[in-house]
Each structure stands twice: as C-alpha cells, then as structure tokens.
Amino acid sequence: MDELEYVNGSEALSDFIEVLLTLDAEVSVQRGGRYLSERAFFSLVEGVEGGVHGGSIFGPSVVYQTAAPVGLCYLRRHEADIGEARHRSAEVFVYVKPEMRNHGIGTSILVMLRSVAKCLDVVELTSVVSPGARSTKSLLERGAFKGGAIEMVSYLSPS
C-alpha cells in the first residue's frame, strides 16, 4: 500500500468538501434520507475553513494516497462538561471512500490516530457508529474497539 498523507481540512478545503459530500451521500442511502442537514454541512465546512475544530487533537484531516483524496479522519477530546471519567478520553472518526476500502487504508488511519492518542495520554477512544455502517463497525472491531451498535470503545494500554 502506498503511504498515506494527512492534510488539515482547512488547507485542503475543496477535497474536504468533496469527501464530506461522498460520506453524506453514502449515509443518506443507508438511512433513506439526507445524513447532514444543510445547516450541519455548512457548519462543518465553516468550522474547518475558520480553524474551529471543537476540541480537536488531530484533524479534521483529508487523507491522501498518491495525491488523491481517499478519506477523512479526526481525533477529538470529549467535552469537558461530560465529567472526570471522560477527561482522558477522545472520540475517533475514520471515513474511507467506498471505492478505496479493503486496501488497509482505514486500518492505517486508525493505527496512526491510536499512536497520536497514546502520545497525548489518552486512555480511552470512543467512536459513534451510524446504523448500517458495517464497514466502520468492522474496522473498529479489528482495531480493538468493543461495544454496541451505536458507540464503541477501545482502551489504550500504557506505553
């Protein structure tokens, strides 16, 4: 597999929007209706464009392979008001375009995000899985995440 490159979404805004539209279209088909409302979509784009990433540790980033955008990812601390139990916890998000799946890209992204989290003393990663997102659930299970249909958790061992 060719090496992956991670570019902050604000530096690759047109590719960020293109991959986000692909994600929106895919999940819309799974759910039988639009995934992101127009307001939510533009809020995401404006946040990336303006550098507002809501607790982001890494990303949101566009993932490239041989100069082509293949996915999106981010690692974000949980909101502080959730409580002390989530103090060293972060949410992970990985999306790989459908035509690029089953080539190890998602696994490589997840390994990189886990490494970043460990360096920052994060001990728990969570991820929200949309109903019907079998490939996401499968990727997370291979990455040592456990849990139900909606939220999955992975505990990181000390280095």
| Total separate domains | 1
State the name of the first-level CATH class: Alpha Beta
Which oligomeric form is depicted? single chain
Query: What is the helical fraction, as a range of percent?
Result: 25-40%
Q: What's the count of strands?
A: 7
Helix and strand succession? EHHEEEHEHEE
Number of helices: 4
Strand order of the largest sheet: 1-2-3-4-5-7-6
Summarize the topology.
Blueprint lengths: L3 E5 L4 H19 L6 H12 L6 E10 L2 E10 L11 E8 L8 H15 L4 E5 L5 H9 L3 E2 L3 E5 L4
Parallel strand pairs: 4-5
Antiparallel strand pairs: 1-2, 2-3, 3-4, 5-7, 6-7
Helix pairs in contact: 1-2
Quick gist of this model?
The protein is of the alpha+beta class and 159 residues long. 35% of the residues lie in helices and 28% in strands.
What does this structure look like?
By secondary structure, this protein is an alpha+beta fold. The chain has helices at 13-31, 38-49, 105-119, 134-142; strands spanning 4-8, 56-65, 68-77, 89-96, 124-128, 146-147, 151-155. The chain has one domain: 3-Layer(aba) Sandwich (Aminopeptidase), CATH 3.40.630. Helix content is 35%, strand content 28%. The chain has a seven-stranded mixed sheet with strand order 1-2-3-4-5-7-6, with helices on both faces. The protein is globular.
List keywords for this structure.
7 strands; 159 residues; Aminopeptidase
